[in-house]
Design brief:
With 162 residues, the protein is α+β, with helices and mostly antiparallel strands. 15% of the residues lie in helices and 42% in strands.
Length: 162
């Protein structure tokens, strides 16, 4: 490569890095990034979901499939395929799934003292979720991660396993 091409490549790489930093919401940039030591970092597969039925009781769904990925650099991705379009909740204070599928990606921040993780999605199949802070309580025992909403009007939980 000649000198001018090297300068051009270096400039493009630097500009791409600046553009990426600007896309990250300020509320998530200002906190410390996740580290490899965080117990959340890695890939998880769906074990079960507990969702409220119409009568208010929780029903456990064990035949859905999904993945949850937390990177050490603060990225999150979640995908859930319900056994049928009807199995996904269609009413509630917040909609996460559409047509039996839930998919989103974005950034996350951990508050280890409170055992919360806050997701802020850059993209989701339910567009109302994009750009909102979605705090979650988490518990880790053995190789299982349980996530629940911090909202008092949401009564669901999701279990993920390594």
């Amino acid at each position: 490569m000649n000198g001018s091409r090297i300068v051009t490549v270096i400039s493009l790489v630097a500009l791409a890095g600046c553009a990426t930093a600007q896309r990250t919401p300020a509320s998530l940039r200002s906190t410390s990034p996740a580290t490899r030591e965080s117990p959340l970092v890695g890939a998880w597969h769906l074990a079960w979901l507990e969702l409220p039925a119409r009568d208010g009781t929780l029903r456990r769904i064990t035949d859905a499939h999904g993945s949850l990925i937390y990177t050490a650099t603060g990225d999150v991705s979640v995908q859930v395929m319900y056994p049928s379009a009807d199995a996904a909740p269609s009413s509630g204070p917040v909609q996460y799934a559409q047509g039996g599928y839930e998919g989103s990606f974005g950034r996350y921040v951990i508050d280890e003292a409170r055992h919360t993780v806050t997701h802020r999605y850059d993209g989701a199949n339910v567009r109302d979720l994009v750009g909102k802070d979605l705090p979650r309580r988490y518990e880790i025992a053995d190789r299982r991660l349980i996530i629940r909403s911090t909202r008092p009007d949401e009564h669901w939980s999701v279990a993920w396993e390594r």
